[in-house]
Amino acid sequence: MIEMDNTSWIMLGTVGLLSILLVTTAITLPLRTLRQGFGPWGIFLSTLSLPLTVLVLSSLLYGLVVAFPAAFGSFPLEHSLLEAWYLFWAILLLFNLSEGIGRLYYAYLRKEVQPGHNTLFFLGRVVVVGASLLVLMRFAMDLSTSQLLTSTAVVATVLGIALREVLGNFLAGLSVHLVGTVQPSQWIAVGDKEGEVIQRNWRETRIRSTGGHIYIIPNSTIASSVINHMTWDSPLRRHILDFPVDPHVSPAVVCQALREAALSVPAVDRSFKGPDAMLLSCKEHALVYRLRFWSQTFPDRTAIEGAVQERAWYQLHRHGITPGSITKIKIPSIPPILTGHAPPKSAESAYDLLLQSGFVQRFLVGNDGQWLIDEAALRTFATLLRRHVYGPGEVLCRLGDTGDLCYILLRGNLYGRTELSALKGEIGDFRVEVGDWVGEITVFSGLPRTATLFVKGGDVEILEVTAQAFHYLLSCHQAIARLFFQRLAERSTQMLEELRCLDNSYPLVN
User: Fold this and answer.
1) How many structural domains does the chain have?
2) Is residue 337 part of a domain?
3) CA proximity to 407, closest of 387, 382, 424, 423
4) Which one of 43, 108, 216, 436 has the largest count of C-beta atoms within 10 Å of its C-beta?
């Protein structure tokens, strides 16, 4: 039999223990899949599997050596080595147990999982393993560790100086991950850089701007900068726009026009808080008004604020207000009393527009081709009309609303949409022809509007007909009133036909 000294037996025992570690690692490797399949519980069980299995196998082998000494011959039991082995794996088991409890606490009690915890637990495991080895070498195995500690400190100092920028970004990234400063898909602004967080790691954070540019920001910059979160924890954000207006204009008129302009933009949010307008300051030649509104897509604020300012321009001009640094106000002419006096020059332009649009030929001509109204009455009717311009996307009236206004189209693309079915039996939007009169049935009958009218593809110019102007026109000739009674009957029949097409069981009333 080969005789071996004590050092050889210690080396042989060490090799045996390391073999136990290798076999145990191979046995417990399939348990790593529990991390993906069972969430925090899977991570908890998989982290406990390795130290627990090592302790169990080591105890079984130690029990076999003690129970059957004849089978192992003169194999000496090095109790200091066994104690160090058991102590090391016991410490690692306790650390993994505390790690698993921490994961379960964050997952089930606090209902959150911070991505930086994996890195933190890994660093903690490295520190625990290193400290345990040093303690065991010094006290359990009676080995000197002073030279190892000295050389380790020197190497750590050199690496710290050489990699101070990398280590700074790593530690900053660790803190950013732990506290959840930025998360993927969030929209943030760091200094003058703004974009959506698309990727982050231990060194850097990458964001993508609205223009598609990718900015790579070191984590040290993220940790030391003031970060503007635009989507967390709610996408609602407030916009502010200022408008200088002539001081002679009533503040109530300006504020109402600005609120209507903001409400006409679909991207402006109405669920949280409606738009509000106020007088901000008084300048020497103008009053400055502030419009505040909310949206849920603040990263697209340039387009949203541009749309609101565009609508504000149209709204203010329809109220006779020209916004600008020093603005002017247009004083509209006051309609004269309904007499036979000659109307002012502004009414003549409306009179000419009525003739040029084809409105008179379509609605005020009898079967014999003669006008149903004389020229003086038509000019008086023209003085009661108001000429307005609407911008792209603006809505003149909505389905189901009531009102005392109707419109004569002069130019532009004006479309309508009904929920029952489109006019002429076609599904979709219908187009209003130049010179057509829309919305008059609501003014004539008091019924809700049957369609939504909106501008599409450029400006639209219309003549706005008030209830006063409409009733005056009906009083000019009985044939005009009969014409609108006929149009009302045709529209009612058309609505019933549309309902019957949508529901075959709906009876058609003759």
Assistant:
1) 4
2) no
3) 387
4) 43
